[in-house]
Amino acid sequence: MSKLSQRHLLGIKDITRQDIELIFETADNFKDVINRPIKKVPSLRDVTIANIFFENSTRTRLSFELAEKRLSADVVNFSASGSSVKKGETLLDTVNNILAMKVDMVVMRHASAGAPHFLSKHIKANIVNAGDGTHEHPTQALLDLFSIREKLGSIEGKKVAIIGDIVHSRVALSNIFALKKLGAEVLVCGPPTLLPKFISSLGVQVELDVQKALAWCDVANVLRIQLERQQLKYFPSLREYTLYYGINKKMLDVLDKDIVLMHPGPINRGVELTSDAADSHHSIILDQVENGVAVRMAVLYLLAGAA
Hints:
Blueprint: H1 17-34, E1 48-53, H2 59-70, E2 74-79, H3 91-99, E3 105-110, H4 115-120, E4 126-132, H5 138-152, E5 159-163, H6 170-181, E6 185-189, E7 205-207, H7 210-216, E8 219-222, H8 238-245, H9 249-253, E9 260-262, H10 275-278, H11 285-303
Parallel strand pairs: 1-2, 1-3, 3-4, 5-6, 5-8, 6-7, 8-9
Helix pairs in contact: 1-11, 2-11, 5-6, 5-11
């Protein structure tokens, strides 16, 4: 029986190409499940999953919660804003208290890079990283690649441009690792101040002209400007960023080919993407949202050892 090579999903860097392909095959089956009249399966009926979010999240937390309920798991939601974390309780104490309630799996988002890795060394439950600082966001990368595969048939040999705030993005790093593992060519594009110094060492091309990046790629994955993570001023103004790096439908229409447009959300409409681009036939943004539930169902199912 097929199983993942790891007990946890901490980052794309830690898993193999075979793991990714197994997750996709499993997600294909779950996508059939969530599109039928009865959207529930009893696969994780005896499993308790705690969603522990130390950072604000709407889409990711809802997507995980829906995936867990579709699998018939028991779900516990924990938000740091209304918890003893505010009273000075440590991360390890918080999670140990939750585990004392006999939780089997922890889905965690944390502002500190490496927090899920730290926990995996101290507790017995399976851990899924739902985003750690500016490090990784593995399930987002998996659903992004699953969506590309669904739209274009495969990922091998495809040209994918990641455009926007690369330096603050955990989505960018996870996507680069996953795309490279599945044989895609990757290009990053954004203002020099928003590109990490080490980025070319990851085997990606760097382009500063957004129109050239669009002309090169088969898929453009456009990232949000993460103002909440920016301690310094990385560009003069949002208006100036939009002028040089914002994407509108006119820019897509002048290309001599159809490209696929993606965004991990939430979109800053009128900043990195105009509404006419985000809602155009190029866009698979809503497909990404739907696929997120199927992919997260696959990850949880496989980690629970149900495969």
